[in-house]
Specification:
about 60 residues; two-stranded antiparallel ribbon; 2 strands
Length: about 60
Amino acid sequence: MKHMKCSDLGGGCDFEATGEDAEEIKIALFEHAATEHPEEFNVMTDEERDAAAKKIDVFVEAQE
C-alpha cells in the first residue's frame, strides 16, 4: 500500500491518503483538498494541478 500526506504537497494538515497506486492517491488527495482546503484548491490553475499530480507520481514511484 502506498501513501502520501497532504503536508507532502505543501498543505498544512496531517491527512494521509493511501492506495494501491498513484492514481488512487491522487483521487484521495484531490478530493481531500477540494473539501478541506477549498480556498486553495478552487483557485489552482490547470498547470498547478498538473504539477501536483506529477509530484504525487514521483513521490509514490519512490515507494516502489
